[in-house]
Amino acid sequence: MPLTLPPLPYSPESLEPHIDAATMGIHHGKHHQAYVTNANKALEGTPFADWSAEQLCRRLGEVPDDKRAAVRNNAGGHWNHALFWTLMAPAGKGGGGAPNGALAEAINAAFGSFDTFKEKFAAAGVGRFGSGWAWLCAMPGGTLAICSTPNQDNPLMGKAIAGCDGTPILALDVWEHAYYLKYQNRRADYIAGWWNVVNWARVGELLAGSK
Ligand code: MN3
Fold this sequence. Notes:
mainly alpha, Helix Hairpins, minor pseudopilin epsh fold, 10% strand, globular, binds manganese (III) ion
């Protein structure tokens, strides 16, 4: 079955004022749709057309040379965005606040405090030159680690590509298309606003599922 665009789990305007409706509409309906369309186009008529985005990312090395770059960029882009939408929720209605339970404990154990984690994660996003992502990953052995990838690469693609092979539990898109309409060049302000819509319950579920 071809890859399909998942619906947003909330309306495009519901993350206002932190993420504006126009950005959400274009980001989901145009950018994410293009990754889906282009991945399907690259894989049409090949045995890989039935693979999930996760399989395509994890087993990128098995994709033929002439398709690999298209799959890396577009199946990667699809997987990353499908995750990203679920990691946000309207502020005060599932979005924002602070993690609790096992997730809070894991963050404190790895980074000392939630505030220190936020500083380090924001720095990974701000420090990513050009386009890419910041990630919080559950590592083998149970600790958490922050990493960052260029373009649409992700930790599922493994250490050789992503420099990290953890299980992503939080993802932040720092491509300009994610924030430029509202924040222009102010990526740090976008990230500061984004904390207000992070769905920590979802992050906690992904941590629980990573074990
Ligand atoms: Mn994006």
